[in-house]
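Quick start: load a record and inspect it. Here is Transposase:
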Amino acid sequence: MQTLQSNSWTEIELRKLRTYAEAGCSAYRIAAALDRTVADVRTIAARQGIVILNFNERETHRPEKAAHA
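Running the structure step on this input writes:
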């Protein structure tokens, strides 16, 4: 069940949003973690200049892993 929240975001939520986005989390995972809708997450991210990569973009922007042992 989605909890209704006010439209205002706290500084803590914005920091978490940025942290999750930088870690490569999807908008769906971020929304679940922040108890917000996916639309809210995408909207505020765009307003704040935070890039949330979609699944295909995450695959192509994945950091190189260490050489196989």
